[in-house]
Design a protein that fits this description.
Blueprint: H1 3-9, H2 23-32, E1 42-47, E2 59-63, H3 66-74, E3 87-90, E4 105-111, E5 117-125, E6 132-139, E7 144-149, E8 155-161, E9 164-171, E10 181-187, E11 192-200, E12 208-221, E13 228-234, E14 237-246, E15 252-261, E16 266-274, E17 285-296, E18 302-308, E19 314-321
Parallel strand pairs: 3-7, 4-10, 16-18
Antiparallel strand pairs: 1-2, 2-11, 4-7, 5-6, 5-8, 8-9, 10-11, 12-17, 13-14, 14-17, 15-16, 18-19
Biased composition (Basic and acidic residues): 62-80
InterPro entries: TAT_signal
Region (Disordered): 34-86
């Protein structure tokens, strides 16, 4: 099986949770349980490609679960009237690194009853974990409202119709890549009906490590025996500030390994220390360093930092996930 075929087969899953209770607390609870890795959803129902898509590109409806698929089979077909009455954009696209590799994901909600209704949402994202509000908006019968999620992270959105909670839908980080994608929902009499997700099936390129560097800021005798590090995504690079513990403070540091693992969308960085030739203080050393990893094409979802000890073992000291406070 080719790499492109495998990536299309192992397509991402949109994780949708239809909660019975609403509000910011419900959205936050759904967000805590939402995975950020790549999924393995099934795909059915090929339709025609959009006019602005490249030749050979198709749109695929991705079914989410058996219950949602069975429910859609007994409900009216997707047939709203006209364009959305209003479109809300959540997040700032200017903050998104490699924007062509991290396109927005849109959610469309169809008022599938024969009367006007007031619709509003609360949304919580993994980058801030703070609840914000969208609406309210009066949506006429058979019309839609659209929300475009601009920043690649995980989201939980709770829908309120005429003041009543209709449940929470969750969007995983895996839906933000080089493809155009959107999910369709209907607001029924009392709950949300999931009509599936459409996505172009362009094979996206993986992140590529362009360069690495490490610099020592300071050295001293260590007060404790443990190394540590903090990781920050900064534009098209990742910055690391850490403390490397060695047998004395005169060691020099280097990045022994920097690798990307496609299956988990993770970059692993291993730092090592070289024993100095000159004499040094007779104490365990704390070496304070700054390291950077620059990327091409895209950023990895996850980064891990390891320090290699005197026996050659790589000890995990820190991990971070893009646009995620967990």
């Amino acid at each position: 099986m080719s790499r492109m075929t495998e990536k299309r087969t192992k397509r991402r899953t949109l994780l949708a949770a239809l909660a019975a209770s609403g509000g910011a607390a419900a959205a936050a609870g759904c967000l805590q349980g939402l995975e950020t890795g790549r999924g393995t959803g099934s795909e059915t129902g090929l339709t025609t490609h959009e006019p602005d898509d490249p030749p050979g590109t198709t749109i695929t409806e991705t079914t989410h679960d058996d219950d949602a698929r069975d429910k859609r089979a007994t409900d009216p077909k997707w047939d709203p009237s006209g364009d959305p009455v209003e479109t809300f954009r959540v997040g700032d696209r200017e903050s998104v690194a490699f924007p062509n590799a991290n396109r927005p994901h849109s959610l469309t909600f169809w008022n599938r009853v024969d009367r006007d209704r007031e619709v509003r949402f609360t949304h919580v994202d993994g980058a801030t974990e703070e609840a914000e509000f969208v609406g309210p908006v009066t949506v006429p019968a058979d019309h839609t409202i659209q929300i475009e999620l601009q920043v690649p992270t995980r989201y939980a959105l709770t829908a309120f119709v005429d003041g009543d909670s209709f449940g929470t839908v969750a969007v995983g980080r895996e839906w933000f890549d080089c493809n155009h994608s959107g999910t369709s929902y209907a607001l029924g009499e009392t709950d949300i009906v999931d009509y599936g997700t459409a996505s172009t099936l362009v094979a996206c390129t993986d992140p590529k490590i362009a360069s690495t560097s490490v610099d020592v800021d300071d050295r001293e005798c260590a007060n404790d025996a443990g190394g540590d590090a903090t990781i920050e995504y900064d534009g098209e690079r990742v910055r690391v500030h850490g403390t490397f513990v060695a047998s004395n403070p005169c060691h020099e540091l280097s990045i022994a390994e920097a690798s990307y693992v496609d299956e988990t969308n993770t970059t692993h960085v291993v730092l090592d220390a070289t024993h100095p030739e000159e004499a040094c203080q007779d104490c365990v050393g704390a070496i304070y360093y700054r390291a950077t990893v620059d990327f091409e094409r895209d950023l990895p979802d996850h980064v891990t930092i390891h320090h290699r000890d005197a026996d050659g073992n790589a000890e995990h000291v820190a991990s971070a996930t893009r646009n995620d406070r967990r």
